[in-house]
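Dear colleague,

Thank you for sharing your sequence with our group. We've completed the structure prediction you requested, and as agreed, I am returning the results in plain text so they can be pasted directly into your records. Please verify that the sequence below matches your submission; if there's any discrepancy, let me know and we will rerun it promptly.
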Amino acid sequence: MRKICILVVFVFAIVFTTNLFAAKNIEILSKVENVVVYHSGALVSRVSDNKMGVGLYELEFKDISSKLVLNSFVIKNKEVTILNKNLIKKLSKEEFFQLEDRKTAVINQIKLLEQKYAEANFIKEVDELEKMLSFYSDKMLSLNKELRNIDNAIIEAKKLDSVKLNNEDAAILKVLVSIEQQLAKPLFFEYVVGGIGWSPFYEIEVENSSSKDISIKYIAKIMSQTGENWENITLQLSSAFPLENPTKLPKPQEPWVLNYQTYQNNIKQTDNLMQNNQQIAKLEGVDYQDIFVPSFLKLRTLKGKFAIKSNSTVFSFPIMNISLPAEYSFYAYPSLDNEVYLVAKVAEWDTLGLVDGVANVTYNKNSVGKTILKFSDFSDTLLLSVGKDNSIYFKRAEIENKKYAKEVTFGKKKKITFAYEFQLKNNNQHDVVIEFFEQVPISQTKTTNVILEQLSEGIYNDEQGEVSWKINLSPGKIVKKQLIYTVEYEGGSFSFSKRKTQRFKTISSPSF
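Please find the predicted C-alpha cells below.
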C-alpha cells in the first residue's frame, strides 16, 4: 500500500510538472467591478475580457495586492479549474539587505568550518575522526543547500525588481488553470485582501433645544494599503467577517446554564476564533477596537460609483442622511459637575443598522466636539448628550441655618445634618424640561441611620441612594428645591465617603 501511494504521488508530480511546461503563459488584464469593504479586509470582484480557448494556461495577474489571502482566490467560470496558485511579492530594501546578510553569515560559517577541519592535530582519535567527518559532511551539505536557496532567492528578487508595479504593496499572482471548454462569459474572479478597512463616523446637528428632530449624517471612513487602485467601482459595506464560513450551521458551544445570579444562553460567536485562524493583514499605523453590530445587519450598497486609492489616505463616503424625531431636555448632577447638559432622546433609530462609532456634534451652529456613539448600549430610545448649555441657570448652595455638617449630640446618639438648596432659571424663550440628580449616603450598619427630611417633591431611589427631580420650566421662571437629610449614628466619630467621580476614562477607537 505504501509503495502504491508513493507511486501515485510520483506520477502526479510528473504530470503536474509536464502540465506546467505545456501551459501557455498569458497576462490577464482586468478591471474591478465591485468591492465589499469590511471593518478588516475587502472582497474584490474583477472581470477580464482576455480570450482563451480550451487548454492549460498559466494566468499572470500584475498589480494584485501583496496582502491577498491566497486560499480566497476563486474563478467563478464553471469551465475553469484552478490547479495551482502562487503569489509573488517584491522584496523591500530592508528584506533584500537581510537576504544578503544571511548569505554573508552562511559563507562565514562555511569558512569557519573548513578552517577548523584543516587545522593540524585537531583530531587525535579514530572515533573522534568518524564523528568529525559525519558532522562536517552533514553540516556542509546543510549550509551549501541554504546558500543555494539564498542565491536563488536573490536572483529571483533581482528579476522581480525589474518588473514595474504600481507601488510597494502590489504583487504578481500566477494561477495555473485548466479550461475544459470555451468560456461562455468573460473571466470573472474574486479574492479577499487585507490592508483595508472601514470605520463608521457620524455628523450630528441640533439647531436648538426647542427642535423636534435631530439630523444625523452617517459616513464610512475607508483607508486602503492594499497596493491596488480602484476606479469607477460599486462599493458595498459589511460588518461581517470576510472569511466566515457561510455553510457552517449555528450550534451552541456550551450548555445553557442557570445559576443563582443570572441565566445565560451560552451561544458563542465564532467570528473571533475565525479571525485568529485566518490571516488578514490589518492597516499599518491604525489602532483597532472591538465594536458591536446589529445581528440583522445586511450588506449595504452605496449609491453611485467610487474610487479608492491605495495611499493610506482616509476617504469619506456618505451612507445616509436622516432626520429622526427627538425630544430635548436638560440634565444636571450638581454634586459631580456644575454644568447643565442638553440631552436628546431619539426614537426610530433601531431599524437603521447603525454601528457604534465616533460622532462630531454641532449644536446651534457651533461645534461641540466629538463623542463615542454606542448604539449597542440602547434597545429602544437613544439617549444622546448634545453638550453643555448655559441657557439654564443652575446653582447648588448649602443652607447655613439648617446647621449644615454640624454634629449635635443627644445622649449616646449623634446627628449630623446636610442641607442644600437648588435654584434654577430658564433663560430660553420656550418651555424646557430639566432633570437633575443628587446623591444621598446609604447606611451599611444597624447603628447608622439616614433620615430624609426634605426632598421638595423629589423621587428617592433607595437602591442607588439617589434623589431625582423632573421640572417643567417656562421662560424666565425661577424654581427652588431643597434636599435635607440627617445621618444619625452612635458613639465614636462618623465618616462617610461619597462615590468618587472618574475624572479620566480609557477609550479605544480607530485613529481615523
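Summary note from our side: Residues 2-18, 260-277, 499-510 have pLDDT under 50 and may be disordered.

Kind regards,
the structure core
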